[in-house]
Amino acid sequence: MSGLKIERLADLDLLHLKLDFGKGNILDVAAIEALRQAVRDASNDHLRALLIDHTGPHFSFGASVEDHLPERVDDMLPRFHALARETLALDLPILCAVRGQCLGGGLEVALLADRVIASPEARFGQPEIQLSVFAPVASALLPHRIGSRRAADLLLSGRTLDAERALAWELIDGIADDPAAESIEWVRQHLAARSLAALGLATRAARAAWLPHFEQTLEGLERLYLDDLMSTEDAAEGIQAFLERRHPVWKDR
Question: Which of 3, 13, 161, 243 is most buried, by CB atoms within 10 Å?
Answer without folding.
Answer: 161
